[in-house]
Queue: 2 jobs
Job 1
Amino acid sequence: MAETLQNLLLGFSTALTPANLLYAFGGCLIGTMVGVLPGVGPLAGISLLLPTTFGLDPTGGLILLAGVYYGAMYGGSTTSILMRIPGEAASVMTCIDGYAMAQKGRAGAALFIAAVGSYVAGTASVIGLMFLAPPLARFALGFGPPEYFSLLILGLLVLGYMTGGSMVKNLAMVVLGLLIGMIGIDHMSGYFRFSYGVVALGDGIGVVPVAVGLFGIAEILATAGQAKRPEVIKPKLRDLLPSGEEFRDSVKPIGRGTVLGFLIGIIPGSAHIISTFVAYAIERRLSRHPEKFGKGAIEGVAGPESANNAASCGALVPMLALGVPTGPIPAVLLAALMVHGINPGPLFIKEQPVIFWGLIASMYLGNLVLLLLNLPMVGIFVNFLRIPYRILYPTILMFCVVGVYAVNTSYVDVAIMSIMGLLGYLLRKFDYETAPIVLGVVLASIIEMSFRQALAMSDGKYAIFIQRPISAVFLAAALIMILLGLRPLIQKGINRGWREHLTKAEKGE
Amino acid sequence: MRSRSWILILFLSAGILTGWPGISAGEYPTRPISLIAPFPPGGVADLTARPLAAALEPILKQPMPVVNKSGAGGAVGMQYVAVSKPDGYTLLLALSSISVMPEVDKLFGRPQTYKKEDFVPIALLNADPTVLTVRKDAPWNSVADFVADAKKRPGEIKYSSSGIYGTLHVAMEMFAHSAGIKLRHIPTQGGGPALTALLGGHVEAFAVGPSVIASQLKAGTVKVLGCWGAKRLASLPDIPTFKELGFKDVEFYIWAGMFAPKATPPEAVKILREATKKAANGPEFKNAMEKLNTPVYYLDGPDFQKFWDEDAARLAKAVRNIGKVQ
Amino acid sequence: MTIDRVSGFALLMIAGFVAVESRVLPLGTHSRPGAAYLPLVLAASLGVLALLILFKGRSALPFGKIKWTEGRHALAIMGACFFATFAIEPLGYRITLLLILFFLFGVVERMKVWWSLPLAFGLSFGSFFIFDTLLKVPLPRGGLGL
């Protein structure tokens, strides 16, 4: 403990140098901007800045890039709440209740809680990173293909069961998303699937055009022609802050989201977006008023936002503790270090204490800076909603187009966004939820690859999923979920079951 | 209203004049040259391209932005350069996978996205042989141990790779074919996940470039059994090559080279070759590559063409031996 | 004819399409499931779910009752999106966005020309400046260099 504190002091002395403070601030600022712009996500921002870090010292460069990374997590919630466009794929869940709150005039409260939740999650995760990095990383390595597969199956089932609306329809959307994710090259056999010769489709359908199309474009399509949109009156300061009740309701979701997000984040390769979906589902399940979800429940913003931030910090654990890149973003961070001749490996923390502890300290500061940056901006952002919609929506369209195009400089992505927008619009008319599709697209390749890798490892024996303890636990939980879902069918008669009550209450009967 | 239309015309003409390509005269290069890296940022191609571009800019006296065009294992970026205007202002920095993909297309009977002959090589920049890596606690201490064990239990020893027909897969299969053993291939989504799979105990071995595992070797989590090069590695002088051990046709390098579209004018190619020779052998580039644990291995265009043809023939044979994996 | 019946039918068609298109891909073995394995499993699941939606669909909203009041606007926006897709590279970002924004402001929303043109101009060129010049995100310049 004492040694940790000593190292932390070393870290702070590094992080508080004017240069490093500047990098941290700059990174957070750029990260927020990148997160706010739909489509352009943290990976794009970090990649753009990578060459600039070649000329800086390694600590400064890493601080800058890390700032962009977790800064983007803060910014992503802004467009989600204000315009129902996910700033980056992981903000999809915030779109649902955050936007609903904005429509009820509680945009300020939503933005505020999102910022606070992100701060708490970020800071707590850094503490976790600080104390638990090596042992956690070793545990995370034990996650192999069978464990991934079981975890993801559990996640998908949880989602289908928990989101509003008919379970059958939700599961259908999940499967549809998975099918969309099948498009492209099959990494395990080399065959191209459903790509019909278009080279750009060879890599599959990206999640960014899908998310922006299903949420952003579909929203514009549904709202632009409507007769009269409620104009937002100039909010007073009191309206900007969450009410006491909203504060109290957010405490536990933030805590749960943080722990959940961190644990899911440390698993190498896992999609962080799954932490937001699971957090949302858990909040809905544990809430005393589940019918509020989808209509502006603050828990539906607090939980996912905290999970998001905690997961992005958690993703750094294996990277820093073992030198293993857990996803495309940590890979770029690793590259930034490698260019300076520093090879993060298991000895990184011991050999480069200045960089490691400097980074840790800088992350504390960065989270604080972001909180202070985002809170006053809430007032500015809320005024954004007062722009007449007929001027707003073409602007939103422009941001969507440029954001989506910028990801891969490919017009094919814009085409996908347009098609998904149309699909999202039609699905609304036909009373389907669109969030499960996004999750399906993201998870499709990981689920398939894990499944086939697991079978390759066991040479065809399906028992491998049950033989390995962690995997067995997840599958057992999934089974319990299914049984709970079937319970209403078993309990026919008087007690119609929780979900049916819920759906009836939502339909306003 | 009239003044507004004048402003509009002014705007448009300014746009046309500044953006119109090729109005200026003079010796090549007269405007910025794009270096296309067909992989996502942070990868090997990227980390070689950027220092090279930085070293070439002062020599060519023109900016050289590195453009990442990733997708389909590099095919998107490579196809982009193959069909781009051959005026010398669009260049490609590719890895050895450039030779593999058309072969795989042929195997599957698909139209090839590009052909090897679509490019003229400018220079080879580095060529690291892969090394056979296992965990520190593995029961084998030499290639002979490994081969003997594999013969005893064919198809049981699992190895990871960065993807089917990827560099790590082809390398391993080349060795397996020559040694007459059968291994079990577990593809992952990239070099990073392949390493993670080994460290986590989900596979027992893999072939990888030495720079990737340098830090793991130092920490003692992995050990190296053999090397795919023609000569021993300077950084790992105790590791025998497969050729030494009797596997005569096993030679595999992860290399990076610069290419231009085939029809690029020969004067431009000559200027690029000269410039790259100076840049690649200069101190800044060497420094940058050393930091990445990848020593510079420079070959000029014609020599590179010879190297490339030999290497491509080896890879084509290996891919045909692998065949369709189902 | 309810919305559930229609959508259930559509989903069933999609499931069928996937199943048919997958027949060229190998099914593989248990130890090496092929490229067609998971698509077929998913197509089957989607088919089952679609049938469930179809048969439980009697109590849903009748198809004819869907409100399409914002349809004209939606159509215009969709048109703009698809135009953006195909024009952005040949015409260049700035011109494409200028045309789209002018169309939406001027024609669809019927704003006066002296509002819509400068606004369209400012937004398209301004966003280009922010993204391409400041953030160095390459945006297409099209045939005229714009």
Note: The mean pLDDT of chain B is 85.
Job 2
Amino acid sequence: MEYLKATKKQCEDYNSIVSVAEKYDGISTTQWAEVIEIEGLFYIPFNEKYPSELTKVRELPIVDVDI
Amino acid sequence: MIGTKLGIYSQKGAEIPLLLDLFPNAESAYALDKLRNAYTGSCIRVRRSSDNAELDIGFVGNNFDTASLLTFVGAGNGFVSKRYDQSANSFDLLQASAANQPQIVSSGSIVTESGYSMIDYDGANSSMETASGLNFGTSSRSVFIVQKSDATGNGSRLALNSSYTPSNAWIITPEIAIRTGSTTWVTSTPTSTTNISLISNIYLGGNLFAGNSMWLDGDVVSRTSGTDGTPNTLNTPMFEGLHGALYFNGKADLTVVYKSDQTANLTAINNFIKTKYGIS
């Protein structure tokens, strides 16, 4: 899955566009995706049915995580 | 035929005892088969890709209703938006974001492993979580997990308590390991990437090195590394398939969690599950 890299607002707007168009049931499934924040940058999964001029990345950046 | 999975045949009219009939009082329990005879709810809620409609899928007898699932999904894909908790506690696993839902039907066929229906976690996006925490605190716990790993790293198969902030969890990984932040209990005995595995975990309290034990397919596994200490006690939601940014890559079915010490029943529970899934 590819991701869009953009501002938080742009990611939220993309999520809204997809969510409205896909007509999820609104009960169990309420949206396309959560906006992902990694080290101050924002990403959202790209949906191939909804083209975007935003920057696409193939993978999310890997960060060191203490688990 | 009911009973063939277990190799158990009941006398006419008699109920076949299921896992939670024999070993009750689970804190939460999920599987693509019925886990106790008295359970009357659904198994999963599925979203189909063709129009995003959703439907609860239940059981036929004690078995997952695959016919209804396939009829509903059709030739497309089916994704799981809810795994219903078959214990009495309603800790359903949820995923409200379409892009993050694990998959149960692919191009009109149920995801399977060795003939058993499974839920596919992609190792990149998919996860589910409870709406609230199970509040384990420092209590003992016994966990039984059936899965087929596609990778054996530190992706979180199950996090009893988790957080988007790392270092706050009790996570079980295919390594096999328990990771609770800076405290870890790690083996050199990873799960198979070709067969279904059973991971069993019992924690009796206190420091991790002394209080934790794990089994793979019913055989005890030894800790080979880690950092001793006490687990955290956050009361945060339970996650299946994710902790922090570490996703489980593989297929999942049974997940049963007790907030109690099941040492006395360990062998019997392991053998019951191994028989059901054909684990040797």
Note: The mean pLDDT of chain A is 92.
